[in-house]
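Posting here for the record, re: flavin-adenine dinucleotide.
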Amino acid sequence: MKGINIVVCVKIVPKPEEVKLNLETNTLDRANASSIINPPDKNAIETAIQLKQIYGGQITVISMGPPFFDGFMKLIISMGVDKAILLSDRAFAGADTYPTTKTLSQAIKKLGNVDLVICGEESADGGTGNVPPGIAEWLNYSQATYCHEIDYDASEQRFIVKRSISDGFEIISIPKPAVVSVELNINTPRFPDFSLKKELDNNKHKIPIWSATDLDLEPNEIGLSGSFTTVDSLIQAKGLERKQIQIIGNIDDIVDQLVDLIINK
Amino acid sequence: MNSKEIWVFIEISDTGVEPVSWELLGKARELANKVNFLVTSIIISNKESKIAEEAIARGSDKVLYIIHNECSHYSFELFTKIITDLNEKFKPEILLMPATHNSRDLAGRLAIRLHTGLTADVVQLDINNQGILLGAVPGFGGSILAIIKCEQSIPQMATVRPGIFQSILPDQNRKGTIEYIFPQIKENLKETILIKKITLNKEDISKSPRLVIAGRGISSNLNEIRLLAELINGGVGVTRPISDMGLFGREHQIGSTGISVKSKLAIIFGASGATHFSSGIKNVETVISINLDHKALINEVSDYFIIADASEILPRIIDKLKLKMELIK
Ligand SMILES: Cc1cc2nc3c(=O)[nH]c(=O)nc-3n(C[C@H](O)[C@H](O)[C@H](O)COP(=O)(O)OP(=O)(O)OC[C@H]3O[C@@H](n4cnc5c(N)ncnc54)[C@H](O)[C@@H]3O)c2cc1C
Ligand SMILES: Nc1ncnc2c1ncn2[C@@H]1O[C@H](COP(=O)(O)O)[C@@H](O)[C@H]1O
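Prediction output follows.
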């Protein structure tokens, strides 16, 4: 095939600001939270589209999550990717990084002939960026995390990336196939084509759903039973108590009070 | 005696040992004393150095010092391979690593290769009588903490955020052993090529007693933000969009993917108060914020909040402060 065969891993997450801890039951109340595309994953999609515009190829989005995410998959197709597949199975629930990366990498294997997997730097709901290197390990691909520039050297079949590290930046070259993760805000994700979205909705366009069986995964490899870590308990993150006093008045009063506060602290 | 071990990965960059490594070592010492484990530091480099002695002075019982000519710089291939081989030989109970970009890059891959659990981005650590590590991990941008454990596999891995734990001051009289290891690694294992490295001098605002913090709502008045910070002898903090736009370096960024601050005072202009940001100011003594929006989340995490146009308030604060300071002089 000509061009780059790209897979983008996209997670749908609850809006962090809308998830509350129910202190009585010690469980998360996500029901009232709206879902969004994990913000850096939008940058991952945009990166894929830009690479495809230059080098040609194909973009497939995969996402592990419940079936109702298919609306998001259509939205993502409307942004300009070729295909979106949902990895969905009740048995996937409760997965930590180990089974999550196993499941995603199985899907990438099934797609076959992949040159580049693009992920976001981390998931907004408590991820930590371990999924991208985990996928790379399962697939024995090379890896580069926290990238903000990605280019392809077709003659060498390598990706050249600029990534941020604690004391600055580095530019490295890694062979394909590779997994990269991109930083939030590295580009401006394009808007979906809403007329296409409408068409997909009306057409009853079906988003393919791959289950554990489709991916040849045993029950003990996935979800909670495939996980090594367990959640012992949940607690509200404590901070200092805030007074929440509103300073009001005309602008001169406000400035006076502010300056007094600043000088006295 | 065959004692159980807590391993600490000492991360080295061009500017030296990443300070979080010593913080981890301090915590590891405390945990090890509780359950009578040994603390071992893992150092990977291309040459011998005094870092081995420092690791002992700062709390290790043992240092495994790996020397390989291609390890002057981090690469996932070599570092994963080296730690995997060490793990095979010594079977540590626990492996702690910094939650920096490079060590996360490594930890994510290593955990899969070692078939074990990884508790990532820990902000609190404890150990129970059975030697099970309990790590508190922030979720949803830092508003909720989950206590996570890994009971069925070793090593129990965790990455730990910088700036959380205290390092131990070096004690040159502490005793420990240093073992040098020169691994044989097949050629061509490392395919990553380092083309260029740009090292930046970084300002440390984490210890600044006063901070002026700019969000996107004040992004066109950053010179005034700097000026106000100078006036009150403070540092400048920013929200992520401001550092993403390149207007300030990453070391100024506050929040879950930036730094956490503990200043006495923070004055925040034009920031919405998203949880990924607010988790970074939890421990500031007094928070003052200015935002146009009376429904902005930042109001709820402030001691004093003002609903106003920050670009109007900011220059007036500066003028007034200057005036007052003249008077005090
Ligand atoms: C994985 C992940 C990690 C993240 N990590 C971080 C992090 O470490 N740090 C961080 O900061 N963010 C982080 N974010 C982003 C975070 O979710 C928010 O998007 C970000 O904090 C918003 O920045 P802001 O408040 O400056 O901008 P905005 O959300 O755009 O808010 C601007 C605010 O300014 C106000 N405003 C506008 N004009 C004026 C004016 N003239 N006067 C007064 N007020 C005005 C508006 O009312 C608004 O509330 C992360 C996001 C993700 C997904
Ligand atoms: N369930 C998922 N489905 C698809 N991609 C995922 C999933 N979880 C994580 N990822 C990808 O991995 C990146 C890092 O996530 P994490 O390691 O969970 O912080 C995300 O930005 C996504 O690109």
